[in-house]
Design a protein that fits this description.
Layout (H helix, E strand, L loop, with lengths): L2 E8 L3 H12 L5 E4 L17 E8 L2 E7 L14 E7 L2 H12 L3 E8 L5 E6 L5 E6 L3
Parallel strand pairs: 1-4, 5-8
Antiparallel strand pairs: 1-5, 2-3, 3-4, 6-7, 7-8
């Protein structure tokens, strides 16, 4: 069964925001990766190296996730594009089917592809300007 979670984008204060959320909801981070820990680290300014590439905080059966949007990578945030709905699927086939459906009439930001972090992943904005992330992680 697919699951839906919220993915938040911040301008350099993801860690501070998630430390706050952790203080409210409790638990431990399931994942915390900085940009300096990725294969893309050499392509970004030193000032962005310690920013958060991906963080995940389980809350009950859901996961609150986030990242720092980097202006050095051409990312900008406005109210409305500071979050995405993240769908985790049970198969590559479901990921492809959901991605094709939700991106129809919208804009593909990143086509479905295998990523350096190990997921089969894609991003799009649907025809109603809602941002989506679709992923499949082999169990």
């Amino acid at each position: 069964m697919a699951s839906a979670n919220v993915y938040l984008n911040f301008l350099g204060y993801t860690e501070k925001a998630f430390d706050f959320y952790k203080s409210v909801f409790g638990g431990e981070y399931a994942m915390l990766m900085r940009f300096k820990d990725t294969s893309e680290a050499g392509k970004m300014p030193e000032a962005d190296q310690d920013k958060i590439m991906h963080i995940a905080l389980p809350i009950g059966t859901s996961i609150l996730m986030g990242t720092d949007a980097l202006e050095s990578m051409g990312q900008t945030l406005n109210m409305g594009n500071n979050f995405s709905i993240s769908i985790s699927t049970d198969s590559r086939e479901d990921a492809d089917r959901f991605f094709a459906g939700i991106s129809a009439g919208g804009k593909v930001v990143m086509p479905m592809a295998d990523t350096f972090w190990g997921s089969y992943f894609g991003m799009c904005t649907d025809k109603f300007e809602v941002q989506w992330m679709i992923s499949y992680d082999k169990k």
